[in-house]
Amino acid sequence: MKLIHPIVVVFLLLLLASCSNNKDNSTERAYTMSLAAGDYQTATQILTHWVNQDSSIQSWAYDSLAYFHFFHNGLVGGQTIRNTKTPMYYVDLGLNLNPKNTFLREIKSKLYLEQGKDTACMVIFQELWNETKDPTFWWDMCFVEMARGNINTCDSMVTLALKDSTLQQGKVRMEHIQAHIQENVPAKAAFVYLQALMLNAIGDILSSATALQEALKIDPNFFAAKQSISDLQRIAAQRQGR
Predict the structure, then answer these.
(1) CA–CA separation, 119 vs 97, rounded Å?
(2) What is the pTM of this model?
(3) Domain chopping of the chain, boundaries
(4) How many C-beta atoms lie closer than 10 Å to residue 184's C-beta?
(5) DSSP letter for each residue of 158-208
(6) In CATH, what number does 133-242 get?
(7) Which of 136, 50, 58, 67 minimizes the C-alpha distance to 96?
(8) Residues 194/154, Cβ–Cβ less than 8 Å
(9) Rounded Cα gap, residues 149 and 144, in angstroms
(10) How many CB atoms neighbour CB 105 within 10 A?
(11) Residues forming a β-bridge with 171
């Protein structure tokens, strides 16, 4: 039996390592390119394969996969029903690694809300608010109370927020999934917008429109407020056309 020279063995090992590194680098480059192009479906496929090949990236890959499926891939190909199972799967994988992951807990609470589990949703939002004092989580709790039909509770919470100068210095994160828009809105504008939604819910359309205009004075690029004004204008035009 012919023995292989030790130098040849070392060379082969280095060659294999180089091939492996090149493969990893090509995967990372493909992933980065997909993100740069805004092709989140391809990025999701690449990252799913990558994390199954390289467990060292789990700490951030599960965060990304959860968000991709929550925001970017939730409605694909004309679907009208949201898929909450897939993002929840990756949320839970990430939380198994780090149960205190604020990013994933926020997504989980929003998925619970979509699933109609408002109590579980509120528990997480309350925990996140207590831990961070991020106005986003106070806004989220107000929104859930309004969705429950607890207008008075929501109104009291919004009033407290608008009296809190520290809270108003922050921003509120919003995701408008069907429009594929994310925005960070000045907290005051976000809470005035909630006032507009409450006024609309009780049928005070004129006051609702006034509140929306006030929110837009604070942030002229506030997508949700502009969309709500457009909706009110469309409804008014339809009524006049009858």
Answers:
(1) 24
(2) 0.84
(3) 45-132, 133-242
(4) 13
(5) HHHHHH-HHHHTSEEEEEETTTTEEEEEEHHHHHHHHHHHHHHHTT-HHHH
(6) 1.25.40.10
(7) 58
(8) yes
(9) 9
(10) 21
(11) 186
Q: Which residues contact 211 (CB under 8 A, 6 or more apart)?
A: 192, 193, 195, 196, 199
CA distance 150 to 156: 10
Residue with tokens 């006024």: 199
Distance of CA 66 to the CA centre of its chain: 9
Q: pLDDT tens for residues 85-99?
A: 999 999 999 999 999
Residues 32-55: tens digit of each pLDDT: 999 999 999 999 999 999 999 999
Q: Which two tokens stand for residue 29?
A: 């480059």
Q: Tokens representing 89?
A: 């799967």
Distance CA 172, CA 37 (A): 27
Do residues 168 and 188 touch, judged by C-beta distance below 8 A? Answer: yes
Going by C-alpha positions, the residue among 158, 147, 154, 224 that lies closest to residue 185 is 224
Structure tokens at 44: 């999701």
